[in-house]
Amino acid sequence: MNNLSDLLTDSQFNIVSNMLSLGIASMLFTTFFLVLARDRVLPRYRLAVLISATVTGIAAYHYFRMFDSFNHAFSTLDGAVNNAAIYNVGYRYVDWLLTVPLLLMEIVAVLALTRQLQSSLLKRLVPAAALMIILGYPGDAKLDIWGIAPSVWGLLSTIPFLYILYVLFIELSKSLVRQSPGVQKKIKQLRLLLIATWGVYPIAFIFAMNSDGFVADQFVAREVGYTIADILAKCLFGLLIFSIARMKSAEDDAEFAKTEFRD
Ligand code: RET
What we know:
- By secondary structure, the chain is an all-alpha fold.
- It has a single domain, classed as Up-down Bundle (Rhopdopsin 7-helix transmembrane proteins), CATH 1.20.1070.10.
- The chain has helices at about 10-35, 45-75, 90-110, 115-140, 150-175, 180-200, 200-205, 215-250, 255-260.
- α3 runs parallel beside α8, α5 (about 150-175) runs antiparallel to α6 and α7 (about 200-205) runs antiparallel to α8 (about 215-250).
- It is globular, with a radius of gyration of 20 Å.
């Protein structure tokens, strides 16, 4: 199926290795930060912050596994293999399967919508997210299921993806009117970050979509793309959620505002 003998050059190896290492550092220390700083927001916003920490924590674990899998597959130093087939892209998909629903909960939680609206949103978004990821996996892992080409899996996965973006955008925009100008600005940033980062995943998928085996350049582009997108979608996003939670905390409680902010 794959061309197993294709090698990564030293610099290609280093690029991917450095990116995965950056992934570990970002995920791990964002997790520490969010856990340690959770008391700097009011209790009602703490859940959103802790969900962010869970997302980056789960991702830190998977980045360790990916780093390990990558070294095992491509390190020639230990005299061993250079074998694309044993680099396990499944870690990314398991990671997304767990973290994307959590990210969606995070967004919905920080908006402090009504309970009813929250659950109706999640009931639509979470199954769509699961479907998007499950349909993408056979394409990325180049599984041979009924001879369906990777591009077709990608296309199928794009349907729930567009649905998620549509629902989120409509709801995020609707919720804007109820927020203060400061929070509105942050939610607009959140929306922009969401579109800019979530859009990178399908692009990175396309980089390595060919079905005729392993191509080093394409592999590197995909891994770099996914890692950058992950850092922005999980760490930066989590920190933005934290700052929205702080802003809302200060608006809700003058005492909190006085101890946490100078102005
Ligand atoms: C796939 C397959 C190709 C088509 C599309 C995809 C979308 C993936 C996305 C993943 C988002 C992951 C996030 C993780 C953060 O924790 C599966 C690559 C549309 C949007 C946000």
